[in-house]
Amino acid sequence: MIKFGLIGCLALTIILLVLRLPDTPPRQYRDPVPPSQKVAHSSHCAGCHGYDDTKMALVDEAGNDVNIYDDWQISMMGLSAHDPFWRATLAHEVNLFPTAQAAIETTCLKCHAPLGSIQAHLHGLNYTYQNMLGDSLGLDGASCSSCHQQPAQNLGQGHSGNFTVDTNRIFFGHYPNPFKGPMQIYVGFEPVFSDHIYSSGVCSGCHTLITETLNEQGNPTGNFFVEQATYHEWLNSIYSIQGKECQTCHLPFIPDNVVIATDFLALEGRQPFGLHQFFGANTAMLSLMNEYKDELGLPKPTGDLAWEESINNNRKSLQKAADITIEPITIANDTLYTRITIKNKAGHKLPSGYPSRVAWLEVILIDHDELDTIYANGLMDAQGHILGRDFPVEPHHEISKSAEDVQIYELAMSDAKGNLTTRLNAAYKPLKDNRILPTGFQRNHTTYDTVAIWGNALTDINYDEESAQGRDEIEYRIALNSRDGFGDLHISLHYQTLPPRWMDDIFTNDTIPQVALFKSMYQGYKTFDEVLDTLHVNDINLNSVATHFPTENDQFLITPNPVADKSLFLFYPDEWNNALMSYRIMNSEGKIMQQDQLSNNIQLKEDVAPSVYYFLIYDQSKLIGLRRFIVL
To answer: How many CB atoms lie within 10 A of CB 460?
Structure first.
């Protein structure tokens, strides 16, 4: 509620104008939020919390732009209502269960278009997908009011989009003694200090999603399925005890003093300052939406590199999520034995969130001299499918005894008949959930019913013993088939948010406009994955027992990856530009497709067809670097 009378507002307006930056024209502020509207559109916030041409506000101590509005706009929070995968999924579910359309859309829109949904329900109205398409509040996505109007009362208690907002036109922030005048005058809302905005409970309402199971006729069965419980996973970890909140990683704080609003000389810097790009894991969707931003009508932030920065920050977030380590390698009985351990460094399961997401291990053994493949486990084909993946689900492996035993970490859902499904509203129970657990996970925790382990991971002693440590350990037995000499072992942990097995189900209904649009955009992203961590062990003596240590050459990078125009650019040290350095490009079957002297610019040959390839760099005959890349 606004606490200034007319005289007070006039006096404050005069003061604010006096305190404006000299020689700076007033910004074009919107009129305050209408009295009937209890939430604020992000454009009401942009006037003060957007890009500052003078570089006096919303920049870090190095002068880098960190404005809240632009950063949020190109996060998955800001884009939640425009996400073409979500729109296609929603349309697909409604097509399958038309009698449940109202219930399905109501649930989805509470999180993907929360402000439109909240405002409609405050007036006793239903809120539909068609309503959202013509509603600027709905299309605003998970914007400022979605978080900053959540009060401390009952925080963390909501789920499935049922969270509380304060309708008294109050914005909660984490800085004491807020300068209230500008927001009260230009927005019509009052900023109030409350440090609960630091709490993970702000995230719980949407990142705990429980759906009601429907039968084939679209009628409720009375059963419920936990589609995601990222907040509960965090509760069942050491991080909740240590006070490391969701915001610690996903809205990282910098210690710099940042002036948080533009145009007013009276404002002092505040710290710590939270970066509002909402660092996450969905680089695939951010990349797709960047490519098709004109077709999707998406925002174009002030900075030319804003989209690229958002994507790269999400990639950095992913690469901090896990580590791979390996035990000493043993050669016996014509078999290479080793144990690989994956450490989950995230504050929740890995992967977490929407159940399409998968992570898996890729393990390749290459003959050091002949340069052909001795063993390959976890490769992708040209369509993005994981080779060797069983149907309906790949079991969790304690021991991988062949190239067909791929270690895939996932939540796989079944319908009421026990069949694999990708439809949330048909989901009845998990067929498998062996996602890597967060450090501190406990099976006797009060949240265990929503974050349980499913499938034969329950009987894996290593998974059980390591779960509280946030790790999984798997033994690999690699048949050498009488190969001798030396080998190089390459291990990668991969991650996909848009795997083709999941998409194939949606695309069966590609006459639906939303599905057809997403399918047309998806074609270039079939093989889009991220590498969370890699580990290389070179010069393994295949004839004797030996201890080997992993090596990694971080100086060698390929861009773009995936590549569409057959033109590669390589980053590596200048001293590599000499006659002794060469490269080879190998396909997933070990065939050398191209080789020559090393250079920074390499044009792929015409017969290098769309697929997965490996780029190897040699110093004379010694392999010093290997990178996987994809040709579209």
So the answer is: 21
